[in-house]
Every structure is written in C-alpha cells, then in structure tokens.
Amino acid sequence: MKNIMLQTKNLCKTFKGQQAVNNVSLSIPEHSVYGLLGPNGAGKSTTLKMLTGMLRPTSGEILFQGKPWSRKDLAHIGALIESPPLYENLTAKENLKVRATLLGLPEARIDEVLQLVDLTNTGKKLSGQFSLGMKQRLGIAIALLHNPKLLILDEPTNGLDPIGIQEQRELIRSFPKHGITVILSSHILSEVEQIADHIGIIAGGILAYQDVITPGESLETLFMQIAQEYRKGEK
C-alpha cells in the first residue's frame, strides 16, 4: 500500500456566506497522478488554492506527509494554477534563471527541468512567441524548479490543440517515475481517464466519489451517475 502524500479532512471554504467547498476529505497516494474532476464552478480550483496556500480554509485540516500543513511545506510543493507566470520578453532559460536566482538554486537545475519538459531546443526564442502548449510546459518547468515532491496543476490541458494535449499527457504521466506526485484538476473526462490512476469527483463543493481508476470502467458513465445523484439530492 502506498504512503499518503497529502490528505484533507473536512476541508471547507465559504465566500460571503456561500459554501464553495464543503467537508472535502481527499487522500492523495504518493507517486500517483490524482485527477480531481468536476464541472466548472464545482470547487476544484478553490480546493487547489487552499492546498497551495493561496486561500485560507474556513475550517478543516490539510496534512502533508502525515503532518499538519504549514507554509514551510511550500518548499516541497510546486503549482501551476491559472496562467503560467512568464516574463514574455525573456527566453525559457532566462525565465528559469530569474527564479533560480531568487530561490538560490544552482544553474544546473535549469537545464534539468528544461530537459524534463522538452524545451531544451528553444534557444533565443522569447517565451511570448511560444505556442500555448510550450507556455504551459514552461510554467510546469518553473513549478518544478525547486524539485518539489508534489505538483499541483489546475486544468493543465485547457485551450491546447490535440498535439499540445498529447504532449502534456505524456509529460504528466512521466512525473511519478521521477518521484513526483501529481494532483490535476479537469472537467475533461477523457483526458483524466488517460492520465490519472486515482480520481476524486467534486459536485457542488462536495467530494462525491474517490477511488482508484478501474481499467475498462467508463469514467463518463460514473461521472454522469454521480452528477445526477447530486442534483437529486439538491432538490
């Protein structure tokens, strides 16, 4: 049985009296790809922002490697939420160098992450001229620069063309063998089916399902069944 990298217990977030995340208890196994599924507005991004310290939970608990989460744990967590934080007038290598200098990391680490995300041959091309897929990969490289144990990705294939989606899929699937646990959110069922080995399904801020993905099981059928049950429960 795998160790648990990250766990939440009855995690809640309320905005102006509106419950966005309601008693969510996630369990993320080490060296896995965990897909957090749900329609837009279900509470996925809010949950991920709490895991990365961007939002403070209203109540509940987050455990990282079995201990209560603290801001010190961000040294072991990388994240790409929303748009990649790029300086578009700099090359891929220059973007990474800025962050490596801020973090006090050796320059050798820059070449390592560029190789990992397959951006070693971009040379003097400015990141503002990159395709959306390349920008996403550079954003992931920035998130990986400090060698995190956990990588959190919010809708990583959003807006990509089919080639970009395929490249991103292969990249994410490669991370567990490099010792990196991945949590990714998505509303695209077919993508999660091909990337993740564990899933959680959020509906209306509630974690309605969590389990290992069973080979041959239709994720779409499962998702629709859970979504319909949730709607019935709302009435």
TrEMBL record:
Keywords: ATP-binding, Nucleotide-binding, Transport
Keyword Transport: yes
InterPro entries in the record: AAA+_ATPase, ABC_Gallidermin_ATP-bd, ABC_transporter-like_ATP-bd, ABC_transporter-like_CS, P-loop_NTPase
Domain ABC transporter stretches: 6-229
A single MF term (Gene Ontology): ATP binding
CDD domains in UniProt: ABC_BcrA_bacitracin_resist
Stated family: Belongs to the ABC transporter superfamily.
Xref: NCBIfam families: galliderm_ABC (TIGR03740)
Name of this protein: Lantibiotic protection ABC transporter ATP-binding protein
Organism of derivation: Paenibacillus septentrionalis
